[in-house]
Amino acid sequence: ILVMPREIITLQVGQCGNQIGGEFWKQLCLEHGIQPDGKLRDLPVDSDNEHGLMPIHSTYTAHPDHAGPNHMQGSSSTPSNASHSFIDDRKDVFFYQSDDLHYIPRALLIDLEPRVVNKLLANTTSNSSPYHRSLFNEENVFIAKDGGGAGNNWASGFRQGEEHHEQVIDMIDRESDNSDSLEGFVLCHSIAGGTGSGMGSYLLEALNDHFPKKMTQTYSVFPNWDQTQSDVVVQPYNSVLTLKRLTLNADAVVVLDNTALNRIAVDRLRIPNPTVDQLNSLVATIMAASTTTLRYPGYMNNDLIGLMASLIPTPRCHFLMTGYTPLSIGDYYYQNQNYQNLNQNANSSVGNNATTAAASSDGDASNTDTTIPIYTSNKNTSYNANTHSNNPRKPATATSQPPPPPSSSIRKTTVLDVMRRLCHHDNIMVSANTRNTTSSCYISILNIIQADPTDVSPTQIHKALHRLRERQTLRFIPWGPASIQVALARRSPYVHSAHRVTGFTLFNHTSMAELFERLLSQYDRIRRRNAFLDNYRREPMFQDNLDEFESARETVQCLVEEYRACERVDYNKLEYDGGDGSGKSGRE
After folding, report:
1. What are the backbone dihedrals phi and psi of residue 392, each rounded to the nearest 5 degrees, phi first?
2. Helix crossing, 329-349 with 276-290: angle to 10°?
3. What is d(CA 506, CA 472) in angstroms, rounded to the nearest whole number?
4. 135, 332, 456, 479, 482 from 26: Cα distances, Å
5. Core-most of 219, 267, 398, 567, by most CB within 10 Å?
6. What is the 3-state secondary structure (H, E, C) of 369-400?
7. What is the CB neighbour count within 10 angstroms for residue 202?
8. Which residues pair with 381 in a beta bridge?
């Protein structure tokens, strides 16, 4: 039985959106065995056979019984082993194939200034180019001709989105026409800058008008709440204006909080001063984990609508938190090692055997991604995948085994332990207090457990759920059931993890209101003095008045009130004004 894939088109908007989008595609290519040129890798040789794959050398050809080239099956010169070389995944949810059968992401790279996009597509030996140089469709790249950007001005980004409406919508239409059964769109952006917030807001409105029956999900990066660490003084203005569009025009918003990401990098990964690339790598891990059941489907949650349906009880309460565990230096090490193996294959294919710089003596990594900081018991050293091998004159190959990560960073994992830790505050990537059990509560939870089928059984998941319910450590909404769903996802055979069981959680929690209240407090502080409004008044939307600011603030305030109302027993009986003047609580 052929299952029609539900394709998803990804829109990367602005500097932040393209940076996290680039890391996301790097991770997806790694998990599906797609090389930097878009061609499939050979199946991994796994002596332990933990993924159920035979250690054979295979090539990939289109299966004659499938309707198109997107369904691939491995073939081998050994007939008896051919059935074991097939990897049951859905690459075509996020990729499609060209006429020469190499894979191309269903992605649009959109920015008003060229620097970040050009770096992704640069035909050089930079860190990112081996993964993107021959991967993206260049027809799906939009950069404004003047290249001036939006200047961290939401109104400028929104105006330029209107000006380039026809060109961008034509690109989206072309990609949607290339899909057999388009399910929806994913938008990657930041809410605090100019292009990601302003042009991203315009695109949300345009998608809602142009594709009213398609789902729109966003990965929205929220700014650092400590304004002393921010170089954008108008980020409260931009954030509130963007939140209005996220509330009214998005179906699901996965919140990625920079403050929480920094905390996790410092506390969990022991990285004293995390770089932007390291934080983006964390975001890519979250994004890839949240789409695992779409790409390696099982019996449940194998499409985007099914994934989100149980998490969003009312249309406006669609802002979701995430968590991941175990996240340790061991996993960070393995992830980078997998990147390097793929990178080496690309470099060797073009004769590029350049080595990278080693880490400095105090353990800080250099600017190149191919040097990994390894924390040992006595001092910090580094491992270079290009130079480490038994023969110092011979570069390491993809099958070379690096020194293992320190044993102190790897622990025993069980389903119960992982599910318990997923709800722990330290593993949640939003800086909101979910531990306040006197008022805040969970609306719904979806846990995705990633493990090999031989390590985890459905019985273990049922026992873990029973233990969690017995302890009653999680407080749920009083007007609905305690909704905890668990999906068991298969692991990619191309990726090795330091742990037997890993977990990802996506949940809806009423403490999300704290995030919005904090933002409104910062907004009121500068709006009360009419500070930094001159650049906004130069744009058409604000030339006559500043009513849009007041409308956006009202929408966000109503969002806070609805999340607070979810904590009440009589929530179902309350009348709620959605903030758009309609008196209705949801978008029709």
Report:
1. -65, -20
2. 90
3. 19
4. 10, 15, 28, 42, 36
5. 219
6. CCEEEEECCCCEEEEECCCCCCCCCCCCCCCC
7. 23
8. 374
Tell me, what amino acid is at 132? H
What the block records as the tokens of 70 is 């997107």
Pair of tokens at residue 71 = 């369904």
Residues, the chain = 588
DSSP code, position 557: H
CA–CA distance, 420 with 286 (Å, rounded to integer)? 18
Q: Cβ contacts of residue 329 below 8 Å, gap of 6+? A: 269, 270, 373, 374, 375, 405, 406, 409
Nearest to 445 by CA among 416, 431, 465: 465
Q: Is 421 helix (H, G, I), strand (E, B) or coil?
A: helix
Task: Name the amino acid, one letter, at 298.
Answer: G
Q: Is the pLDDT of residue 51 over 60?
A: no
Task: Please enumerate in sequence order all residues whose Cβ is within 8 A of that of 421, keeping only pairs 6 or more positions apart, or say none.
Answer: 325, 326, 427, 503
Tokens of 429: 């990537």
For the chain, the average pLDDT equals: 77
pLDDT digits (tens, 9 = 90+) for 128-174: 445 566 789 999 999 998 888 899 999 999 999 999 999 999 999 99
DSSP letter at 574? -
Residue 575, pLDDT > 70, answer no
- H or E segment and range at residue 81: helix 79-82
- Spatial CA neighbour of 554 closest among 522, 584, 577, 531: 577
- First-to-last alpha carbon distance for the chain, in angstroms, is 35
Residue 515 scores a pLDDT above 60: yes
Q: Let me know: does 142 contact 111? Beta carbons within 8 Å.
A: yes
CA distance 156 to 94: 31
Residues 6+ apart with CB under 8 A from 452: 50, 51, 490, 491, 500
Specify the amino acid at residue 510: T
pLDDT (mean) for 117-135: 65
pLDDT at 58 over 50: no
CA gap 545, 523 in Å, rounded: 18
Residue pair 485/447 in contact (Cβ under 8 Å)? The answer is: yes
Taking CA atoms, 78 is separated from 54, 65, 81, 274, in Å, by 11, 20, 6, 48
Model pLDDT for residues 429-456, shown as the tens digit of each residue: 998 888 776 778 999 999 999 888 788 8
What is the rounded distance in angstroms from the CA atom of residue 304 to the CA atom of residue 291? 8
CB burial of 403-440 (b: ≥16 within 10 Å; e: otherwise) equals: eebeeebbeebebbbbbbbbbeeebbbbbbebeeeeeb
pLDDT in tens, 520-546: 999 999 999 999 999 999 999 999 999
Q: Which of 8, 510, 446 is nearest to 217 (CA)?
A: 8
Task: Give Cα 175 distance to the centre of its chain.
Answer: 21
* φ/ψ of residue 72, rounded to 5: -115, 145
Residues 316, 442: Cα–Cα separation, whole Å: 16
